[in-house]
Amino acid sequence: MCIVVPLSVAAAPYAAMVMDARTGEVLHSRNADTRLHPASLTKMMTLYIAFEAVKNGEITLDTKVRVSKKAAAEQPSKLGLKAGQRIALRYLIRASAVRSANDAATAIAEAISGSEAAFARRMTATAKALGMTRTTFKNAHGLTEAGHLSTARDMTIMGRRMLYDYPQYYNLFSRRSTHAGVKEVRNTNRRLLDAYRGADGIKTGYTRAAGFNLVASAQRGNERVIATVFGGKSTTSRNARVAELLDLGFRRAPSRAPLRKPSPPVYAGTPGGADGAAGKTIRVSGAVQKSLRPHLRPGSGQPVVVAQAIVETAKAEETILREEIAEAIAEAKTPQVSTASLSAPSPAVVPRPAARPTTRVAAAAGQVDPQDDSQREVVTRLSTSGGKHWGINVGRYTSRYQAEKVLLRTALAEMSALDGSLRKVVRGPRGFDANFHGMTRESADLACRRLQARNVSCFMVGPG
């Protein structure tokens, strides 16, 4: 005899928490510290980091994100993205927030950190910085994966952080529908939004292992309450339980209470980086807005040249380069990607250039870390034609072979941004510089921003 049990009654562990959003005071909890599957509540952190990346100049809302095969193959709920397709980040954010699209969440992760695994490490590190001490993320979407766990307490903290740290984006979660670039999508939480007075977000989630989860917030007068439920048996029963918890919160919350917004976390970019070096912190910063001539050193008639050599061992560098070049070449061969814009390979022998001109390095006062190459804009003299006198530098290496490989890999990975540029390795006293020449200022700036979003060191090179 075979007994079929409907999914709606499949039991998942139950947990709940109610918090006064103004003060952070806990008004009710049950199993709030039990580590459970968060499902698509995960996307709150994915979106939080996306907002953080936009704020700090890693990427822009208008950046065209290339959809990978991995992102396109994610299981529903999804937007229906195709491998090789390019779509603005703003639409991926809308799809993740409103539709809870898994393919959009993965695309966001890869655009910001280079890979979903690197992004998940950043998610976990950010969670710890926010006080979410019992949360570990393994992916950007929330589909069930070993070790991908959180708690009702941590997700309530996440909801409060979303409300106060990025209030300019919070309205996304109350939209009943929105256009996500390729189609109109409807909110997965619209039933509660329509049924409960004052409800204005935040995020639903469901997997078989998690049950029906929800973090909801509502405001009535001066009072705002956040309620979280893990392990609901159905959408209907979960919404009913959340409504009861919100009612409980409004009964227990004082009518007047001081607003104690949480302090913003320290921004430190991507822990681990795209290369997967565990424990390493890479500081990411916005682009330098202008280049100023530094003061002369006392007793010297020449400007001070500030530079930091990027020294890596040849063995480790070659291993990383081979892997990334193979991946970039595989992507370039997919039918959705045009290879017409690829520039010809660099000649095997490159004539030794003349002595390198005097270089000017400038930084906006108080905004640039002198030890951080990603924050610099180095200006040197170039000789190009057609008004394209700008270029970019993607690193200094210990051998010409390494520099040429990086240029090829970068050209393949960012074909659209580097279309028409020339690859050139310039030998200097401290190593071999990998440069792209023959670009406009705008195209060089765009290329650097896209590369920095992939955690690739890059600075602009322009006419003196």
Explain what you see:
This protein is an alpha+beta fold and 464 residues long. It has helices spanning 43-55, 69-72, 89-99, 102-113, 116-129, 152-165, 190-195, 235-252, 314-332, 400-413, 441-453, and strands at 15-20, 26-30, 64-66, 86-88, 177-179, 184-186, 199-207, 211-220, 223-232, 270-271, 281-282, 360-362, 377-379, 390-397, 422-428, 431-439, 459-461. The strands form 6 sheets. A 5-stranded antiparallel β-sheet has the order 2-1-9-8-7, sandwiched between helices. A 4-stranded antiparallel β-sheet has the order 15-16-14-17. It has a two-stranded antiparallel ribbon with strand order 3-4. A hairpin with a 2-residue loop joins strand 15 and strand 16. Helix 3 (89-99) packs across helix 4. The longest helix has 19 residues, at 314-332. The protein is elongated and about 70 Å long. The N and C termini lie far apart (83 Å).
Keywords:
464 residues, alpha+beta, 30% helix
In short:
By secondary structure, this protein is α+β, with helices and mostly antiparallel strands. The protein contains eleven helices and 17 strands.
Strand content: 15-25%
Kindly report the spatial arrangement of strands forming the biggest sheet.
2-1-9-8-7
Helix proportion range: 25-40%
H/E series: EEHEHEHHHHEEHEEEHEEHEEEHEEHE
The helix-and-strand class reads alpha+beta
Main β-sheet: number of strands, strand sense, barrel status? 5 strands, antiparallel
